[in-house]
Each structure stands twice: as C-alpha cells, then as structure tokens.
C-alpha cells in the first residue's frame, strides 16, 4: 500500500462529501492515495481530517496539483458550479472522474468544461448507497477512452468492487443513460415496497406476513427486505434520500420524454416522492416515500 504522505502517491481531489462522497474519500485514503476534499458545507467535510484527508475551503484548493478530480455532488448544476471554481487551478491533462448522477441533460455542459480545460473526462456514475460506499463495494458504470483506464483503476478499485465499462467516449453519455435505467428500477422497488406495506397496514395485514409469504420465492429480493425494514423499524436514517430520489426521478422522466417513451410508473413514483418531500421527509431515507400513501 502506498504512503499517502509520499510525493509518489496518486493525488485525488474529491468534490462533494455527502453520504457517498465522504465514504469514497475515506476508502481512497485507506488505499494510500493522497486525498484532498471539499464540500459546500465545510463542517460536513471536517471529520475526514481524522482519516488523513486534507479538507480545503474551496474547490480550487482541492484540485491544485491533483492527478485526479472526482465529483460526487447532487446534480449536474452543482457539479458545474463546483468545477467552474477550479478553472484557474486545474492541471492540464488531469483525469476527471464524474461520478455524480447527472442524467442526460446535465452531461453536455460538463463535457464542454472538460474540453475547454483539457481534462480527460470519464462518465462514471455509481450503483450503491451508503453501506456499499462505506465498504468500497460500489459498482462503477464507466465510459471513457482506453488510455485513461489504467489511471482510473486505483480510484475505482478503492471505492468499488466492480467496474463495468460501457463505452470509450465519456461524452456519449452511455454510462449516465445506463444509470438512469438502473435507478428507474430502484425507484420502482422503493415505491412498490412502500405501497405494499401501506396497503398491508390499511387492510389489517401484518406486513411481516406479507414478507413471509414471498420469502425465498421469485418475488423476494434483498432490496425489498432492506426497505421494508426501514419502514417497519421507523429508522429513516438516509442511505439515499427522498430528495435525491426525486431528483433522479425527474432526470429519468426528462430522458424518457426526449426519447419518446412513456413512463407511467416513473411518473407516479416521482409524484409520490414529491408528496413525501412536501410532508417534510426530504432528508430521510427514500423508503420514507411510504408516507405519501397517507394524507394529502
């Protein structure tokens, strides 16, 4: 393992240290990489100093001299706002691993920024939430040229257990489009779980009898168990928030509309998430969309 105080250690700037970014930064530091981190709310990044990560006050400080820039922010607008602040400090030829979920609408402006500042761009959103991020067990969906993949591997190998390369052009959006397809399924399961538990309670059925009825069969799945337990334990500590899920639902619907495909379930899921957010559950786990089954 490399010494992260060594001048030879790969230097990675992590922009965005929320639920996912903080866990990823810690795993990079544990792998011996030289990690510097920035977050819009600095107090959320400060605990990373205990892991040997240099917490910076600005995105420009974070990227100054970095070999790799990793962005893990809420959406394309937030990513673009952060990287614009780095313009004067970015090393030419630095590798930019764009790992946020930005959809198809947010990608072009990021690609333009990368081209204007001579960065090597990889479109690399991830599959997984808080626990997989903490364990370094994310799946990375990546699109980028062959000649940067060796440079990306120390980062991808530290934060994930699997990298699925789906294209050789980061600008193509191949990875981001795949992420939207996967997230559509994630939101379908989250909302289906919440509605099924809500229906069980409304009909006087013990929700655990529902889970027992499908146990071990074709209708059973780990994510159903995970999200059901969140609801039944009433522990909505977030691994993926209602607000983030609502943002992803919007990206899915916008991409679908552009592609000319009708997404009735996705539209209903987006409405449930909007309603739950309006009820005050925005920063809770996405399973709190369950509450959209009750009230106005």
Would you give an account of this structure?
With 296 residues, the chain is α/β, with parallel strands linked by helices. The chain folds into two domains: 11-172, Rossmann fold (3-Layer(aba) Sandwich); 177-293, N-(1-d-carboxylethyl)-l-norvaline Dehydrogenase, domain 2, CATH 1.10.1040.10. The chain has twelve helices and nine strands. 46% of the residues are buried. The mean pLDDT is 96.
Layout of SSEs?
Layout: E1 11-15, H1 19-30, E2 34-38, H2 42-45, E3 54-55, H3 59-63, E4 68-71, H4 76-84, E5 95-98, H5 103-116, E6 120-123, E7 126-127, H6 130-135, E8 138-143, H7 146-159, E9 160-167, H8 174-202, H9 207-214, H10 222-233, H11 242-259, H12 264-281
Parallel strand pairs: 1-2, 1-4, 2-3, 4-5, 5-6, 8-9
Antiparallel strand pairs: 7-8
Helix pairs in contact: 4-5, 8-10, 8-11, 8-12, 11-12
Largest sheet properties: 6 strands, parallel
- Helix and strand sequence: EHEHEHEHEHEEHEHEHHHHH
Numbering strands along the chain, what is their spatial order in the largest sheet?
3-2-1-4-5-6
Q: Give me the Rg, rounded.
A: 20 Å
CATH topology of the largest domain: Rossmann fold
What is the annotated CATH architecture of the largest domain? Answer: 3-Layer(aba) Sandwich
Total discrete domains: 2
CATH class of the largest domain: Alpha Beta
Shape verdict: globular
Low-confidence stretches: none
Distance between the termini: 55 Å
- How many runs of DSSP E, i.e. beta strands? 9
- CATH homologous superfamily title of the largest domain: NAD(P)-binding Rossmann-like Domain
Given helix and strand content, the structural type is alpha/beta
């Amino acid at each position: 393992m490399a010494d992260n105080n060594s001048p030879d250690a790969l230097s990675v700037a992590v922009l965005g240290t929320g639920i996912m970014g903080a866990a990823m930064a810690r795993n990079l530091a544990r792998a011996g990489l030289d990690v510097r981190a920035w977050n819009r709310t600095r107090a959320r990044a400060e605990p990373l100093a205990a892991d040997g990560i240099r917490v910076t006050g600005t995105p420009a400080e974070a990227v100054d001299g970095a070999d790799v820039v990793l962005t893990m922010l809420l959406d394309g607008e937030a990513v673009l706002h952060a990287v614009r602040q780095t313009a004067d400090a970015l090393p030419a030829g630095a590798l930019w691993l764009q790992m946020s979920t930005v959809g198809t609408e947010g990608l072009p402006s990021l690609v333009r920024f990368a081209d204007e500042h001579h960065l090597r761009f990889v479109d690399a959103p991830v599959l997984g939430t808080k626990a997989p991020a903490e364990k370094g067990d994310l799946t990375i969906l990546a699109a980028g040229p062959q000649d940067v993949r060796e440079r990306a591997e120390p980062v991808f190998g530290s934060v994930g257990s699997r990298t699925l390369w789906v294209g050789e052009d980061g600008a193509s959006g191949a990875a981001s489009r795949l992420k939207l397809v996967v997230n559509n399924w994630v939101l379908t399961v989250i909302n289906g779980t919440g509605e099924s538990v809500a229906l069980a309670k409304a009909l006087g059925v013990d929700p655990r009898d529902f889970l027992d009825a499908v146990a071990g069969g074709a209708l059973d799945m780990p994510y159903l168990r995970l999200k059901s337990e969140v609801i039944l334990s009433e522990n909505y500590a977030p691994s993926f928030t209602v607000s983030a899920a609502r943002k992803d639902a919007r990206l899915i619907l916008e991409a679908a509309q552009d592609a000319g495909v009708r997404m009735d379930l996705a539209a209903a899921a987006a409405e449930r998430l909007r309603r739950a957010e309006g009820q005050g559950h925005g920063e809770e786990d996405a399973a709190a969309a369950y509450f959209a089954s009750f009230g106005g």
